[in-house]
C-alpha cells in the first residue's frame, strides 16, 4: 500500500510531463492556425460590411466600389496562399499526429471499457485519453473553422457579384465568378498528406 501511495502521484506527474512534452509542437501549430483564423474572420467582416453597404446604397461610385472589392479579393488570395504554404510545411507532422491520435483513442477506448485493471491505471489511461481527445478535437475544430470561414467569404463574394447594383465591369464579372466557383468546389484548409481537407465532417480511414 505504501508503494502504491508513492507510485500513484509519481505516475500522474510523469503522465502530465510526457503529455505536455509530446504536445508542445501541437500547441505551436494551434497558435499558428488561430492566427490564420483571426485574419480570416477580420477579412470576412470587411466583406460582410461591404455587402451591407452595397444593398443599402442607391447611388454607387463604380471605381471606388470596384477597387474596394478587388482589394479584398486580392487580400483573400494572399491569405489562401499563406494557408497553403503553412499546410505544405506541416502536412507530414499533421498527418502523423492525426493518425496517431486516432489509433491511440481507439486503443485506449478498448482498454478502458474492455479491460479490468486497478484504479491507478484507469486514472492514468483516462488522462492520456483526454489529452489525445482534446488534441484531435482541436485539429478538427480549427480545420473546420478555416474551411467554413473561406466558404462564408466566397458566398458573400458571390452575393456582391449578383447584386442589382452591378459595380464590377462585365469583363471582370466572369473571371470573379469562375474563381469563386472553383474555390467553393475545392476548399482550402488544414490538409493532410493524402490530400484530405479537415472539416467538421472529417473521417479518416486507417488501414
What is the N-to-C order of secondary-structure elements (H for helix, E for strand)?
A: HHHHH
Average per-residue pLDDT, rounded, comes to 76
Per DSSP, the total helix count is 5
Overall geometry: elongated
Q: What percent of residues are in strands?
A: under 5%
Specify the biggest β-sheet: none
**How many DSSP-defined strands?**
0
Low-confidence stretches: none
Radius of gyration: 24 Å
Q: Which structural class should the secondary elements be placed in? A: mainly alpha
Helical proportion? Answer: over 70%
Give the end-to-end Cα distance, rounded to a whole number of Å. 43 Å
Transmembrane segments: 20-37, 90-115, 121-142
Keywords: Membrane, Transmembrane, Transmembrane helix
